[in-house]
Amino acid sequence: MPFQAIVHASELLTGDGIRRKDGRRVTQSDLGRIADGALVYQTKKIANREVPSRIEWVGRTVDLPKKWKKIPRLDLKGKKALSPGLVDCHTHLIFAGDRSEEFSSRCGGTSYEEIAKNGGGILSTVTATRAASEAELVRLGSSRLREVYRRGVRTVEIKSGYGLTFESELKILRVISILQKKFPQMRLSATYLGAHAIPSDVDRRDYIQEMILRSIPEIQSKKLAESCDVFVDAGYFTREEGREILLAAKKYGLRAKIHADEMTNTESATLATEVGALSADHLLKVSDQGIQSLAQSGTVAVLLPGTAFYLKAPQAPARRLIDQGVRVALATDFNPGTFMCLSLPAVMTIAGLYLGMTCAEIFAAVTYNGARALGLSEHKGTLEPGMDADFWVLPFEKFEESYYRFAW
Ligand SMILES: [Zn+2]
What we know:
By secondary structure, the chain is of the alpha/beta class. The protein has two domains: 3-85 and 386-404, Roll (Urease, subunit C, domain 1); 86-372, Alpha-Beta Barrel (TIM Barrel), CATH 3.20.20. Helices cover 37% and strands 21% of the residues. The protein has helices at residues 16-20, 100-107, 112-117, 122-131, 134-150, 166-182, 204-221, 239-251, 268-274, 288-295, 305-311, 318-323, 344-354, 359-365, 368-372, 401-404; strands spanning 3-13, 33-46, 49-60, 73-75, 82-84, 86-88, 153-159, 187-195, 227-231, 255-260, 279-282, 300-303, 328-330, 391-393. It starts with a strand and ends with a helix. The structure holds zinc ion. The site of zinc ion has 4 residues, from loops.
């Protein structure tokens, strides 16, 4: 089996303490910082490409066992740090169309209501995405994934949700599975978000019934998604509709996720814990009861501070969540309307400044807790022997620099 080594990392962060605490109440000492670190990993061939597969050994370069001294090695010469590959556990990466004019008019003071009235907003993205061919969406997705990879992300969740018909939602999910074959160096996790909005031309009950009776079974039989997400909010789906859709999805083996308590409080964080969801995402308006339910459950709170920043909205109560013992992950929420940014490190900067998160909390939020929000933390999120060899060679000497420098 082919092995490779990375040696003389200025610092190597294993994150092993975060795994031991299962992502709650993490502190600096949980990062497992090793000065002058080294890593040995196995590789495997996928589609004629040699890609990292499993971590074999982690430690100080000086302690590298003799048997690994002759294998191919990458010497970082003390100039670059090494961390677990980042996990972006909430994106809407597949869409077509352009909403830059809408953004600039919003900056000029135009309201969302006016933009929607003029044919902008989510519906313009839905129209463009329905019209786009599979090949066009693969091309757009590929260039976005290359950008995501460059910023250290090795695992990325991608939601459908800009099709809102049986056929076009399946098209988006097929695009994600094509992209997974094209990018064996990354792990893509597909989420079905047919319940992103009620399409304007369809009866509400008919649409929900179609998702439950037709889309979800088809997605499961073709293995096109791992999770199912519902936008539970005023003007979108109710708590009860959310529960109905997610319980149906669970019957077909899809894990649950919820866009929860974003614009109004609907107690959907509590709903997430009741249906055993992997994550409750957004949480700008989460109640004390919601925080308590999250703290006592396995559900991860996924915070998306870039979106609140972009909307100039008050941020989620990250400190209260973390201090109450909730596992918190951070993600970009990359989407054409409310966060047109693929940089998870930029989101980390916003989280440090506006959520008051410490370096250890930010690190855990984009590694182990992100993996946990996708149900992948058994194999991902830390640099330890036996884990998947998802690592990131930073273009910096220290991890902190990755978010101290803004929008690099
Ligand atoms: Zn979202």
